[in-house]
UniProtKB/TrEMBL annotation:
Top-rank taxon: Bacteria
Native species: Shinella sumterensis
Protein name (Swiss-Prot/TrEMBL): XdhC family protein
Lineage: Bacteria, Pseudomonadati, Pseudomonadota, Alphaproteobacteria, Hyphomicrobiales
Record-linked InterPro entries: MoCofactor_Util/Proc, XdhC_CoxI
Signal sequence residues: none
Domain XdhC- CoxI stretches: 17-84
Keywords (A to Z) from UniProt: Plasmid
Length: 109
């Protein structure tokens, strides 16, 4: 079950989760091309139970980002992810609007 907290700042949620002892990763939109639905600087925070808050793509690639974030939480190794209609992930995940997006995922704390 997803523990989405509507209308909260994902950074506030991340800090609240960390203070309660949860392991947390943050995904940040670094760069976009074309008509990507979220601007650079947008955030998605994820805890080790796959609860999340925020958005990096308006729902287009969140599932893939959450999966990668869980790996980042367990290994502690940050990742740079890129999604779009012109790469090898286009048939698994993609931006319905046709844009491209680069997302940096790192563990907090």
């Amino acid at each position: 079950m997803n523990e989405m907290m509507m209308d909260l700042d994902p950074l506030v949620t991340a800090e609240t989760w960390r203070k309660s002892g949860r392991e947390v990763a943050i995904a940040t939109v670094i760069e976009t091309w074309g008509s990507a639905p979220r601007p650079a600087g947008s955030h998605l925070v994820i805890d080790s139970d796959a609860n999340f808050e925020g958005s990096v793509s308006g729902g287009c690639v969140e599932g893939a980002v959450i999966s990668e974030a869980l790996d980042v939480i367990s290994t502690g190794e940050a990742k740079m992810l890129e999604f779009g209609v012109a790469d090898e992930t286009a048939w698994r995940v993609g931006l319905s609007c046709g844009g491209r997006i680069r997302v940096y995922v790192e563990r907090l704390g």
